[in-house]
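Hi D.,

Good news: the full-assembly prediction came through. Inputs first.
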Amino acid sequence: MRPRLRYLAPLAIFLVIAGFLGVGLTLDSDRVPSPLIGKPLPDFSLPSVRDPARMVSPADFRGDPWLLNVWATWCVSCRAEHGVLLEAARRHGARIVGLDYKDERAKAIEWLRDLGDPYVVSAYDPKGRTGIDLGVYGVPETYVIDAEGIIRHKHIGPITRRDLEQEILPLLAELKGND
Amino acid sequence: MRALAVTLLLLGGLWAGPTLADAEALREFDNPEQRARYNALLEEIRCLVCQNESLASSSADLAQDLRDEVYRLVVTENRSREAAIAFLTDRYGDFVLYRPPVQPNTWLLWTGPLLMLLVGAGVLIAVVRQRRRQPEPELEPAERERAERLLRGDGDRP
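Then the structure:
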């Protein structure tokens, strides 16, 4: 090994390690990419939160893009997200379907009454069985679904106003434009 | 009598209520192979809530649901290990597996340690070869004389 190379080798090794670690810093291991993106939303048929006699299925919402928002009254960040969802529904006309995950019906109804209801309808999944089919692991989670029922995007964690304006609404508009 | 009371009190402190192991011990299986398949799967699958724990060790709510799900797949539906793993990766992705599958995006992960070993071996060989090529350093006459004296066992005094 020539002397100059000998001094450069540790520097090169350092740069390689620093490169890997640097990329590692930009990754968020809490956000597990969903294998369901680009695939049809798994089918389910669940009673509505407000009316146990009414059944809710993904097929009911075909024809226009929509959001499926997984929420629960025990979920603290759902409360933080709630105002943004109300704004999305009321000001921007987003169609949001709720999936009330591992919750109690009475509490859920109370929550919707007290905080406002941004949802077209909320499906009631007390056991979390549909949640497993959707790959839900941290509530809140929001799926963007196109007019054909294909999952186009999954947002993990609460939607902030910034997420809504820069990510969710533009995607909904784009999906609507494709029709 | 008092010693017994104290002992019982101390032992009572060790009792920490029903544990994960108790809940799992109540599971019923058709045969030992099924139990082994179930337990092996729990060790292999990551809990997505607390990502450094397997389903076997996690007490998160979702881990309990997924254990029930694995039990349903393995016992109620008697599905194979591969089918149960496919069920979970279809929903949660390869990330749920502690042992990632060998596929193009994991080649570096799987071969990395071997590559590092080869690089290390290469450097070692290069260094040894280079050392061998270097000539032996010449000794001054006085040094040579001293070395010979030492080898004869005459001590280190002139």
